[in-house]
Design a protein that fits this description.
The chain has helices spanning 10-15, 37-43, 47-56, 66-74, 76-80, 108-119, 125-136, 144-168, 192-212, 217-226, 234-251, 257-266, 284-287, 290-293, 299-305, 314-320, 345-351, 357-361, 386-392, 423-427, 432-445, 466-469, 481-493, 503-523, 541-544, 554-566, 570-585, 591-604, 627-630, 632-638; strands spanning 171-173, 188-190, 279-280, 325-332, 335-343, 362-363, 408-411, 417-420, 463-464, 479-480. The protein is mainly α. Residues 1-22 form the signal peptide.
């Protein structure tokens, strides 16, 4: 994919200076240097059009962001386990079995504060300046395109506030039609109970206006140039906005079920995201110079630097995707030892009983097994524990277990790695199981099998596949048709309405769409160590070049999964729907499954996410501490809610969910 060449609006984007300091709300109202209507007119693009395109390029709004994504992967995975940090569950060389949180360890300021800082600075700046220009212009001089751009900016503003209020509850809110502090209006802190009805009305109004807009061919061509998000398609903007309406309706379903039902009824017949290509977001390669992506900027740098988070989750592979390990036993010195000798993926992928995404999203271990890691603590005391069965599968049938003369165990691709027995184990066959088990557990816990790099060939457990994950053309998934289908499925199960089909139909369709999406993302990766941008030199070439063996029949598997869905209770169906949401977005979007997990705890009676035993559950993000000094009045408003243990309004709960050690 080529780096997009901005044409008539490039001059404007270069002139716009982004707000640098994010810890002061006053920075929201700084005038972008030299960005004026006069200069916009000279470039042949309206000033409102320029602000619209500028808004689409803001960091972490519609595209990835290295710093924010890094912290969402690192700290977010400690909450949600979208991917597994193996040293958190295996003690050899790892961490102790004691309660930990993500509030006070390294880097959590970026985790807690990113969305708040952005919504109060760069996410709002172009919107307010565009609104001010629109308000100043006489009605008779406003063009159809100006009205279109301001409408789409209002929709983007609603999306930004949805993300912010889901993280913090109370955030500074600026009313639609107001240029805020630019015209002297004081911002007001509002919470979810006030913001959600506002943005739902806003989305509905935006869709109604878009349904009536007709562009001339000249206007359409200009719009297509400015719209780097959806290519100038009003229909796709309507799909985006209506799918956001559905997201918001489901988010408030625990506290405003009547509003949820009303919105879903209103959406009957409305255009929604519905195809595997219906993904809203912007790729790194579209907004960042290629030579800067790998080393300096972009979501893919976050993945590369968080390689220790890239182990596959047992929940995804085994519990959601039906990839089951094969359990075998062997009697050694009178003791029955269990181990995983393989998995059912070979036949299952062919006959539609194993999810095709197993081979699209994940990579097998070096021996070809798709076996993920459990998030439950394993201290090795149970000789036949889940993790021990993974490790034992590598050596149990090796000659070293029966031949006293064999003192070195070789493993990995081409037997490139080795473990030498200690003196006691060299002399006694009965000691070898315990020694090799501990040694392999220690290798895994210390990431010696991968050298802290995703995409190495000697991995001891299944991990995320580098092909979709390091595809620089991958769009940051703001929202995708899979989420829309899953929301419709949940709405039908819970009785909020089913305007476009049954829960089964939507659930089945979501799985098929997700399969196609991840297959295409995998096979479309044309990058290598020699391209610009280049894949990391630490990755193994064999992994970079290994595509899925084929495109498996998504419809066959989706029907298999739907038949299981048919036999479930309503609560089990909602859990299954959540599982599909978390699997689909995985590390690419932490916020959506995190929000869904928090709101579903009340309905399900438990946390639907795959929780670590040792990490405290976090109910909300905390505010930047700098607000206390820079804005004492605002701090007085928000400080009573600055508590990660306090559930947000939309959860319908007053009590924190607690994990095993809390």
């Amino acid at each position: 994919m080529k780096y997009i060449k901005f044409k008539s609006f490039l001059l404007i984007l270069l002139m716009l200076s982004f707000v640098a300091c994010k810890d002061k709300l006053a920075d929201l109202y700084q005038n972008p240097d030299g960005y004026s209507k006069e200069l916009a007119d000279k470039s042949g693009v309206s000033v409102i059009a320029g602000f619209f395109t500028s808004e689409l390029t803001q960091g972490f709004l519609l595209s990835g962001d290295y710093g924010s994504c890094y912290h969402q992967i690192r700290s977010g995975d400690r909450i949600m386990a979208n991917a597994v940090q193996i040293y958190q569950v295996v003690p050899e060389g790892g961490s102790a079995f004691s309660l930990a949180d993500v509030e006070h360890d390294w880097g959590t300021g970026g985790f807690n504060e990113s969305v708040f800082n952005y919504v109060n600075t760069s996410w709002m700046t172009p919107i307010l300046w565009a609104q001010r220009e629109y308000n100043k212009s006489p009605k008779e001089t406003r063009t159809t395109l100006d009205t279109l751009y301001i409408t789409l900016l209002h929709a983007i503003k609603g999306y930004a506030y949805q993300r912010a209020t889901d993280m913090y509850d109370k955030v500074p809110y600026i009313e639609t039609g107001s240029a805020g502090g630019l015209d002297g209006a004081k911002i007001t802190y509002l919470g979810q109970s006030e913001i959600y009805p506002k943005i739902l009305r806003e989305f509905k109004s935006c869709d109604s206006l878009l349904a009536k807009i007709n562009l001339t061919s000249t206007q359409q061509a200009l719009f297509a140039k400015q719209d780097i998000l959806l290519g100038g398609s009003i229909l796709n903007w309507r799909k985006f906005i209506n799918s956001l309406r559905l997201r918001c309706a489901m988010n408030v379903s625990e506290v405003m079920p009547g509003l949820t039902s009303q919105v879903i009824s209103d959406l009957s017949g409305a255009p929604l995201l519905s195809a595997n290509t219906d993904i809203v977001g912007i790729a790194d390669i579209a907004v960042i110079a290629p030579n800067r992506i790998g080393d300096e900027l972009g979501i893919t740098r976050a993945f590369r630097e968080r390689a220790d988070d890239c182990r596959a989750n047992k929940k995804f592979l085994q519990d959601v995707m039906n990839c089951q390990p094969t359990i075998s036993t062997r009697v050694v010195n009178g003791q029955t030892l269990s181990y995983f000798s393989g998995d059912n993926s070979g036949m299952g992928l062919q006959n539609g009983t194993v999810d095709p995404r197993v081979s699209y999203i994940f990579s097998p271990d070096f021996s070809g097994r798709y076996i993920g890691v459990d998030t439950k603590w394993d201290n090795g005391s149970d000789i036949n524990s889940y993790f021990n069965k993974i490790m034992r599968g590598y050596y149990i049938n090796d000659p070293i277990m029966t031949d006293i003369s064999k003192t070195t165990f070789y493993y990995g691709k081409n037997k490139s790695k080795s473990i030498v027995l200690d003196a006691v184990s060299k002399a006694d066959l009965t000691k070898r199981d315990a020694f090799l088990l501990a040694a392999l557990r220690n290798e895994c816990a210390n990431y010696n099998d991968t050298d802290y790099s995703v995409g190495k060939e000697n991995n001891l457990v299944s991990e995320y596949n580098i092909r979709p994950q390091f595809n620089y053309a991958a769009k940051y998934p703001v929202i995708h048709a899979v989420e829309t289908e899953l929301s419709l499925a949940e709405a039908a199960v819970r009785g909020f309405g089913s305007p476009n089909g049954s829960a089964r139909d939507h659930y089945k369709n979501a799985i098929a769409l997700s399969c196609d999406y991840w297959y295409n993302l995998n096979i479309s990766n044309q990058y290598s160590k020699q391209t610009s941008p280049a894949l990391s030199s630490t990755m193994d070439d064999s992994r970079i070049n290994t595509l899925p063996a084929m495109q498996y029949n998504a419809s066959t598997y989706a029907e298999f999964a739907a038949q299981k869905f048919d036999t479930m209770t309503n609560q089990q169906k909602v859990q299954a729907i959540f599982n599909q949401l978390q699997l689909h977005y995985n590390m690419f979007n932490f916020e959506v499954p995190y929000t869904a997990a928090r709101r579903l705890i009340k309905y399900l009676g438990t946390n639907p996410a795959s929780q670590y035993d040792r990490f405290k559950w976090k109910e909300r993000m905390t505010y930047p501490s700098s607000i206390q000094a820079s804005d004492p009045a605002s701090w007085t408003i928000i400080s009573p809610f600055n508590n990660p243990d306090l559930p947000l309004w939309f959860t319908g709960r007053a009590t924190k969910w607690k994990n095993a050690l809390e």
